[in-house]
Amino acid sequence: MAYTALYRKWRPNIFEEIIGQKHIVDTLKNQIKNNQIGHAYLFNGTRGTGKTTIARVFSRAINCINSTDFNPCNKCDICQGILNETLMDVIEIDAASNNGVDNIRELRENIKYPPSKAKYKVYIIDEVHMLSQGAFNALLKILEEPPNYVVFILATTELHKIPDTIHSRCQTYSFKRVTYDDIKKRMIFILEDMKILYEEKALEIIIKKGEGAVRDSLSLLDQCISFTEGKILYEKVIDVLGLSNEEIYFDIFENIINKNPANLIKIVDDVFNSGKNINFFIKDLIEYNRNIMIVNTSTELLELLDISDERKNNIKEQAKKISTSNIIRILEILLEADNAMKYSNNPRVSLEITLLKIVNLSFDNSIEGIVERIIKIEKKIESGNIITSSNQSEKTVGSNSTASDIDKKVVIENQSASKIQRNVESDTILQKENIIELSIDNNTFNKIENSWSEILSLVRKNKVSIHAFLIEGSPKYMDENRLIIGFDDKFGFHLNAVMKKENKEVIENIIFKVINSRVNIVCKFTSELGKIVNDTKDDENEITKKVEEFFNDSIEKLEIIE
């Protein structure tokens, strides 16, 4: 007798054996109970989620003569005929290979004849989105006024390709991806029935590669059973599926945090020499970093991860070592690399370059990489005082200026009437360190600050997503024509989103519309902003005092001229 694959051998035969789709099972059973069978159903969902299985169980349940609890008995002549594919009242059609107008016209002729033995004549059309436009038009005519003994069950993985005219004439059911726990319980049930030992870590890897599809997961399990000879072991599963040990991803992340590029290159070399698929490897690396991002966002989201408790603890500890903005940047680089590797003739080098970019952003020439380096530079000068000048006559002097390159005229107005004008070396009067030169337009900034609510409102009307990012920031000051917007450190994602070219242009155009002045917005973390001194009176008083001492006279007004 030929061997039967696990996913076929353990295909559910009654509604209670179907996992992960309780919302659909309950609805269909209630329809059978109340004798409210529809004439057309549209099952939508990813592969391996039970669309065809439920269609088959439902077709037997509505025709079974010995139904128990609205399930098929699978023993009567009709159930056996459907199971053995000898009863012609339940017909399965593959739309991928029968997608022409002629095929549907033939179907239209056949439905004129009532069922031979069963109560309903059921047509299960799989991959229905593959039908041609002409075939859909022909099918539409059938669905409009079908005979009362005909039931259509259409199954698709691409609902968006189904014409609205077809969609509107069917009861649509959306199949969910089956959860990690549901697939795990099903696997354990099968393995225990087959008396096969297993490690839970091994099952976790198999389920993860199945991506929520029961059929795919059972196919992988079938493959592993053949390789491991009666015991499903983690190391064996890793080998047979061509995957890498989870510890490798842990080590990669640790070396990224510790900025150790040499170790990263060695890890890539080990992966390559062991014969692992580089494309699979980077996908798993993306998944690992995605888990860290989820936990970094909130530890309450830890339960969303379909991994063992041991791995959850490792992820939780590593998530504490990195900021949200940095892990998002790492994921962006990995996703770009994953896409590029599809067309790369040398994926190994691509992976090495990717990891070097991540561990040292000075190699990253993207906008985000440049921004990261600018932030580091700003941190080096953030301890300095920022002195601003008013719109009238005061100017700020930088600390790097020396007596040899700056010679200023100090104009003094005496109370008596005469003006005394002398050259004073600025270095002897102002010897300050770490002064950042800014030219601030207080008038423009005041307009923006007073109109900020209106600006946010207009941004929201233009694009809600940009408003959601911008609302976490606030205007801080003007530097020439640049509007500095500050964000708390925890809103790094929002800051980066606002600085994207297309979002930035929208905001700048709206500000121009409100205040009739063109500004260039720059976003910064509030912790990185230097101390801004908006009032220069203290500095003027210091200069005034020194000049008064020098001339032994009182001063009415002091002006520094470049």
Write structural notes for this entry.
- The chain has about 550 residues and is of the alpha/beta class.
- It folds into 5 domains: about 5-175, Rossmann fold, CATH 3.40.50.300; about 180-240, Orthogonal Bundle (Helicase, Ruva Protein, domain 3), CATH 1.10.8.60; about 245-365, Up-down Bundle (Zinc Finger, Delta Prime, domain 3); about 385-440 and about 535-560, no CATH class; about 440-535, GMP Synthetase, Chain A, domain 3 (2-Layer Sandwich), CATH 3.30.300.180.
- Helix content is about 50%, strand content about 15%.
- It contains 25 helices and 16 strands.
- The strands form 5 sheets. Strands 2-3-4-1-5 form a 5-stranded parallel sheet, with helices on one face.
- Helix 14 (about 280-295) packs across helix 15.
- It is globular, with a radius of gyration of 36 Å.
Supply the number of structural domains. 5
Helix share bin: 40-55%
Measured distance between first and last alpha carbons: 99 Å
**Second rung of CATH, namely the architecture of the largest domain:** 3-Layer(aba) Sandwich
Q: What structural category do the secondary elements indicate?
A: alpha/beta
Query: In what range is the share of β-strand residues?
Result: 5-15%
Number of helices: 25
Number of strands: 16
Largest sheet: number of strands, sense, barrel closure: 5 strands, parallel
CATH class (first level) name of the largest domain: Alpha Beta
Identify the quaternary structure here: single chain
